């Protein structure tokens, strides 16, 4: 159901410290904490003794101590002490998940640890670059299949309806183009010489028409970059000159919690007015309004999907990019599953 | 499970306007609204695209616009516009349900629209007659099988126990008679020369004994008329002269929501003191107390039934009318099902 | 799943009166009340007519009257009246459960009434003895398998971790001994010449080290006696002289509610300062804090067990007594089941 051998955003860097953070990822219970040297640790949130959550325990140095009977586990998941005895029972090791902290996020590898390769983490350098100001946000729990976020963001036609009061107005009929890459699907839409959308009008202070772009790039398994902006109409943005306007990037991560729920992580980068806290405040407020509209739609679609298991959806032209992304992801998951099956079969043949 | 080819009360007329009302009926999600000319419309509450509820959208003239991607549906359920394209995909039509507004209620036909015949709507003329004053009430959600309302109202023996403080007192042993008609079952009970029940004493101002009647008529699938009143003892009510007392009719409609829940619609008609708002207020209060007692009992029986799936109920003499009504309804449902089966078989044979 | 032919604590004596108390025991709904002479009665909480809960009805003398249609049941579960008719339908009798009030508790026998033998009730005489003061407590609902309470109390190694702030501190490594009896398992642990635990320091006013004991006796199916105390170090407690300190007994009863929930009854006896209400108050507060910690652990283990149905727990040395108690209980249940099976088979062979 989920792609395992890949990096997911497990937490914002600023969520982790010397406390214990419990989070369900890909239907597995994980406990996060930081070692004394600051390194992020992710372990299975289950004492191997009686399955009491380790997240209800305490840290002792880099070791996590179960809150019920005091069993201790090191950062590799090895049980290193059972109070009242000198040995440790067989089978007491729990899972440890590789983690990497980068771009202000803690990435977690839920698959085969041997395959965890930090160079596969997407290059979202703006989140750690002096010319860009990044806002982070605590993950929002969403009651929906994580793939619905890609469907939502890859189809700009919904903006005119769902986001009437924030982003959209008269752009439903503006056509968009699609491009596909190795591991990505992109949608590009330019709206030329039109009034600015309410949020951009507020942020950019436009008094005349703008050229407006939406460039949305989905990357497997569940990251969506939104490159959004408006420049004074005719000032050359479509040819690459974005100097006469307002530009932002938002990164959206739909990390699966369970089959039908996900953690919605998002960040927002801008390359103007870094230190203007008021801009930050307004941006966060406006984004959160738009997000809550998306979440309402995603949860409504999930509820409708659950409600009518026997009915078939219909597709519109605007669904093209979303369907392509889903197909690509399904291909990756199928490949991973059949690889796992053939490894298991080989193992059995050897045995 | 439900009788389909019949009229159900879907809403009170005063519940519908230019907003969108979502309601689950017979396990189907329905959205109600009024056209610009006031006609009531009932559509499947499901955009055929991604199953987002249409009730979260907007009206544009007589057309309903999906709140997510803006697909538009007319009053027949036909998809008439998909933003961003000029054609409409195959399979995008949704269900429309025939509706009729009559007697202050909006009736809905959940079965084959070709069979919807407005002349089958029960004739409850008092709800639209100058000599009668009718109170309407928003439907009450009940956690129970809709047939339990018939069981309840057709058995007056419960009044002495469940409605001690409102309707009943010493009448448990008074026998009742049962009559059966084509599509109805009736229970008749006269209690002669006894003190008035608390509610009637308040409304009728009786200072001496009364003759009291309860004439309850169940009509398939789920309407129950209650003809209730008290007259001065010996003043001739039993022979048809109801002039020396207080008379009321209440109409009860248990429209199924799901298998184990229903919407309890009720109305209350009286032919005295039309303009006395205080009488209306007291009546509504008293009826709602009695109803809440019935609902408590219905929900308790439903819970008990769910709790003991393997135990068999026992029947008492007072259950006769209720059992007869259930048998009749089952016969109608079975007939409808076997008709559907034979139509399907004929269709398959032809194909 | 449950042992049936044995006594369970069904209620505290002070919970019962002339009202109706509904409680689920061993997955059966029971209604408790007292007869006019004060005798405790326990009946199936189900009117045999439509399964309306009898606990929503009323008492009429020693008879319980259903709140819906007025059927009456005597203390043996026999239906003695159906309003509106002179006879009583076949199959209208409901179950009555033997009860005995003893030691301030009402014991209930959920199995074959013919086998109910009051002499099998455990002898916890301190709860009814002038030299001991007993505190009773309303049962606490716990979301866990009732056997988890035995696991918890029979393993004193958890005290140092779960009860840091109340009972425990540095005693995790103190070894304990186990003894097994006919129907009981006992764990004994002495901690000599150590500072008093916070709760005992408060109650006993110790200024120097103490000798401390924990003697925990589980008795099938679900009673755990905790004999707990501290005396001035070296004053002879280990040889039986408990005069220089503080001694308490707590009795814990995990009466199953459903498969995964139980009612936690507990009492607390002390043989000092009977009339000091402040000691009673502090004791109750401290015990409730420790209990809430145990309950948190039990509910956490239950959740973990449900979460990982395919994973195997590991055992530690400290689990020995708990595992032994579970094995013994399983033996009793298996024996009861196979006896039932052979009786059924014999009955079938005869028929």
**Top-tier CATH class of the largest domain in chain A:** Alpha Beta
Over all CA atoms, what is the radius of gyration of chain A?
23 Å
* CATH homology-level superfamily of the largest domain in chain A: Naphthalene 1,2-dioxygenase Alpha Subunit, Chain A, domain 1
Helix-strand pattern of chain A, N to C?
A: EEEEEEEEEEEEEHHEEHEEEEHH
For the largest beta-sheet of chain A, the strand count, sense and barrel status come to: 8 strands, antiparallel
What does this protein structure show overall?
Three copies of one chain form a homotrimer. The first copy, chain A, is α+β, with helices and mostly antiparallel strands and 351 residues long. Chain A has two domains: 7-120, Rieske Iron-sulfur Protein, CATH 2.102.10; 125-329, Naphthalene 1,2-dioxygenase Alpha Subunit, Chain A, domain 1 (Alpha-Beta Complex), CATH 3.90.380. Helices cover 23% and strands 32% of the residues of chain A. Chain A has five helices and 19 strands. Chain A has helices spanning 147-153, 159-162, 198-204, 277-307, 320-350; strands spanning 7-12, 21-25, 28-34, 40-44, 58-60, 63-65, 72-73, 79-81, 96-97, 99-102, 105-109, 133-136, 140-142, 177-180, 184-194, 210-219, 223-232, 245-258, 261-270. In chain A, strands 12, 13, 14, 15, 16, 17, 18 and 19 form an eight-stranded antiparallel beta sheet that branches. Chain A has a four-stranded antiparallel beta sheet with strand order 2-3-4-9, with no helix packed on it. Chain A has a four-stranded antiparallel beta sheet with strand order 5-6-7-8, with no helix packed on it. In chain A, strand 14 and strand 15 form a beta hairpin. In chain A, helix 1 packs antiparallel against helix 5 (320-350). Chain A is globular, with a radius of gyration of 23 Å. Chain A binds chain B through residues 151, 155, 157-158, 160-162, 172-173, 175, 296-297, 300-301, 303-305, 307-308, 311-318, and chain B through 29, 46-53, 56-57, 65-71, 82-85, 89-92.
């Amino acid at each position: 159901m989920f792609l395992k051998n890949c990096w997911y955003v497990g937490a914002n860097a600023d969520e982790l410290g010397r406390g214990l953070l419990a989070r369900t990822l890909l239907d597995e219970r994980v406990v996060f904490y930081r070692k004394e040297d600051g390194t992020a640790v992710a372990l299975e949130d289950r004492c191997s003794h009686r399955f009491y959550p380790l997240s209800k325990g305490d840290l002792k140095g880099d070791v996590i101590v179960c809150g019920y009977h005091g069993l201790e586990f090191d950062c590799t998941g090895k049980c290193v002490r059972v109070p009242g005895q000198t040995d440790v029972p067989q089978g007491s090791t729990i899972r440890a998940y590789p983690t990497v902290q980068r771009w202000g996020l803690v990435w977690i590898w839920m698959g085969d640890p041997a395959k965890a390769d930090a160079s596969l983490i997407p290059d979202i350098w703006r989140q750690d670059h002096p010319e860009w100001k990044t806002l982070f946000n605590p993950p929002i729990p969403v009651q929906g299949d994580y793939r619905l976020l890609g469907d939502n963001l890859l189809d700009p036609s919904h903006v005119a309806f769902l986001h009437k009061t924030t982003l959209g107005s008269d752009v439903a009929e503006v056509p968009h183009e699609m491009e596909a890459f190795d591991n990505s699907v992109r949608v590009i839409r330019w709206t030329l010489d039109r009034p600015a959308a309410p949020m951009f009008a507020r942020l950019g202070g436009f008094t005349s028409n703008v050229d407006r772009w939406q460039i949305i790039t989905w990357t497997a398994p569940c990251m969506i970059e939104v490159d959004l902006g408006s420049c004074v109409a005719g000032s050359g943005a479509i040819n690459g000159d974005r100097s006469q306007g307002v530009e932002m990037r938002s990164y959206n991560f739909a990390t699966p919690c369970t089959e039908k729920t996900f953690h919605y992580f998002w960040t927002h980068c801008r390359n103007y007015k870094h230190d203007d806290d008021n801009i930050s405040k307004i941006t966060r407020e406006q984004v959160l309004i738009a997000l809550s509209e998306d979440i309402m739609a995603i949860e409504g679609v999930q509820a409708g999907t659950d409600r009518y298991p026997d009915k078939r959806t219909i597709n519109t032209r605007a669904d093209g990019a979303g369907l392509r992304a889903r197909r690509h992801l399904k291909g990756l998951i199928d490949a991973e599953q059949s690889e796992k099956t053939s490894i298991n079969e080989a193992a059995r043949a050897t045995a």
